[in-house]
Amino acid sequence: MIQYITEDVKLPNIQKAKVTRWIKDTATIYNKKAGEIVFIFCNDDRILEVNKQYLQHDYFTDIITFDYSEGAIISGDIFISVDTVASNANDFGVSFKNEIHRIIIHGVLHLCGQDDKTEESRKIMTLKENLALEKYSDYL
Description:
single chain, four-stranded mixed beta sheet, about 50% helix
């Protein structure tokens, strides 16, 4: 089950049923199946608190993914700061809608075993995000 919840922010305008199908289809590309995934949309203050408490990082970020996957079943809690997503969308010259979808699939790709710890792996992750975003356009 994929859930979309909020903490002190309005839920972004996403088409939950279509995004859920997109997530499930993306997982199958990596030979995975979506299990329990919870997207927690929050503000910068909350994501900073989570970052400090669980990762000992004292900075803002757009996403934090807690991976509880087992075998081929992907599960996790994915915190997304809508404040940082909006700021990044502005900085990158893209729409908020595009950036929120990119960040959603970024978290899913982490659950599917993809990482972005090095410059090379970040390039690969961006490519995979772009491919998933192209596929998402088929759902609209």
